[in-house]
């Protein structure tokens, strides 16, 4: 099953290339490696403002991280010349989770993105290294920010 068949089966439409909110590029490619800048969680087209341990729970956070992964896939598609089937491997995700000092489930929040990436690309191409950090704040108050590194064929 192609990446696009899987996306269609999941009912996912990819967004257009995300426009940077500051002085950076949405992605940079060097050789076959593509590095996607961090994408923040959005809800109803606006930053999904929340802080874990205060006003959002882990299950909602998994949905936020999944939404970020969909945005990342839109950017990755652009980086791959319009064809996600060119992705040889998703190498790494790095997740920043806006959380209070006593919130310790950043890894579970980030599973929302990791599980979708693995489902879309399959075990061979979608299994990736990962870091998940709790941070005191993210730009615009967003609850989650994730960046992605992939290898293209």
Automatic annotation (TrEMBL):
<dbReference type="Pfam" id="PF14588">
    <property type="entry name" value="YjgF_endoribonc"/>
</dbReference>
<feature type="domain" description="Endoribonuclease L-PSP/chorismate mutase-like">
    <location>
        <begin position="6"/>
        <end position="152"/>
    </location>
</feature>
<protein>
    <submittedName>
        <fullName>RidA family protein</fullName>
    </submittedName>
</protein>
<dbReference type="InterPro" id="IPR035959">
    <property type="entry name" value="RutC-like_sf"/>
</dbReference>
<dbReference type="InterPro" id="IPR013813">
    <property type="entry name" value="Endoribo_LPSP/chorism_mut-like"/>
</dbReference>
């Amino acid at each position: 099953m192609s990446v696009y068949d899987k996306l269609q089966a999941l009912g996912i439409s990819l967004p257009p290339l995300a426009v940077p909110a500051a002085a950076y590029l949405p992605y940079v490619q060097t050789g076959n490696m593509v590095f996607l800048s961090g994408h923040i969680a959005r809800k109803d087209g606006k930053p999904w403002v929340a802080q874990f341990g205060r006003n959002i729970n882990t299950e909602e956070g998994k949905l936020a991280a999944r939404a970020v992964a969909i945005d990342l896939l839109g950017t990755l598609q652009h980086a791959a010349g319009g064809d996600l089937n060119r992705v040889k491997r998703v190498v790494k995700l790095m997740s920043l989770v806006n959380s209070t000092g006593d919130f310790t489930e950043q890894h579970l929040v980030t599973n929302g993105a990791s599980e979708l990436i693995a489902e879309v690309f399959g075990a061979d191409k979608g299994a990736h290294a990962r870091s998940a950090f709790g941070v005191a704040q993210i730009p615009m108050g967003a609850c989650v920010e994730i960046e992605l590194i992939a290898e293209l064929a």
